[in-house]
């Protein structure tokens, strides 16, 4: 009887160990779920597609092609905001609640992003904002669960102010009448105020504007009698093509030069009619010189027969940041991730990036450019004038 009991005890112990090993292996094999909540449909569809391609390539690059972290497979769940704030909120809540994702990335629109921030706080889960740029995302509406790899409006504004705010220059702005445009102009205005240039007029137009005649006339009237060099600085995303339409109205007859920031390759076609135009950009594939961007350019060209675009780089940065954070934290626990990410530095396609601890904004280089025209290239080429590094820009903390 004792022998039988001993045999049973051994069997029980072996079974317990086997069960424990099996359970541990099962736990280790659980996927790391990441939601990409972005506007797959709507006016910013092109931006969204680039962002998603970049995110997947960033995850691939950071995991050396395995799409695994510590033996756990990365699973990306896509959610379409349709560029509507209420749907964005619902999709993010669904991702955190029903899909039980560890973190989320997105969205494209600043307006949608602002609606989603509180959801991250309610669920106590991370949202890596990419590519929405409104300052208020990591400013007035910031909460500790928000990190942003995208540049913010202040980074755009300060870089463009460096390019345009020459001594004595007079500047007017044209922007979309929503968070992206208004935050962009507010940041630009603050940056210009620190120079000897002056902002003399602000014009806002609905995001779906197609006829810019009235706006252009108000801008021309405001600028035409101003002394010194005169710029119209355009802050615009999506359709409408205000650059080409206003340029066709011959602003040069009043001595007015059009200026703007960088954009996707399709939008840069309009820049070809404006050789010598200056501004500052977040990314153009030929500018950064580093191993990450070299890989991105080579692989994107091979896979898609085109160079990576403006928002591809941002998506890649978000993917790399997510992997680096999980590795550094040694966990997907939210509190561990926040601790790991505050002050975290990592290399993206633009080079060094750093999450500022105070507002979780990624500090990064921007690029002062001048448009060069090549007959063999479909778009105006943003040729580098000067790289503006993290140290070159005093980005305000606004929360």
Automatic annotation (TrEMBL):
<dbReference type="InterPro" id="IPR051010">
    <property type="entry name" value="BCAA_transport"/>
</dbReference>
<comment type="similarity">
    <text>Belongs to the leucine-binding protein family.</text>
</comment>
<keyword id="KW-0813">Transport</keyword>
<dbReference type="InterPro" id="IPR028082">
    <property type="entry name" value="Peripla_BP_I"/>
</dbReference>
<protein>
    <submittedName>
        <fullName>Leucine-, isoleucine-, valine-, threonine-, and alanine-binding protein</fullName>
    </submittedName>
</protein>
<feature type="signal peptide">
    <location>
        <begin position="1"/>
        <end position="28"/>
    </location>
</feature>
<keyword id="KW-0029">Amino-acid transport</keyword>
<keyword id="KW-0732">Signal</keyword>
<dbReference type="Pfam" id="PF13458">
    <property type="entry name" value="Peripla_BP_6"/>
</dbReference>
<dbReference type="GO" id="GO:0006865">
    <property type="term" value="P:amino acid transport"/>
</dbReference>
<feature type="domain" description="Leucine-binding protein">
    <location>
        <begin position="31"/>
        <end position="372"/>
    </location>
</feature>
<dbReference type="InterPro" id="IPR028081">
    <property type="entry name" value="Leu-bd"/>
</dbReference>
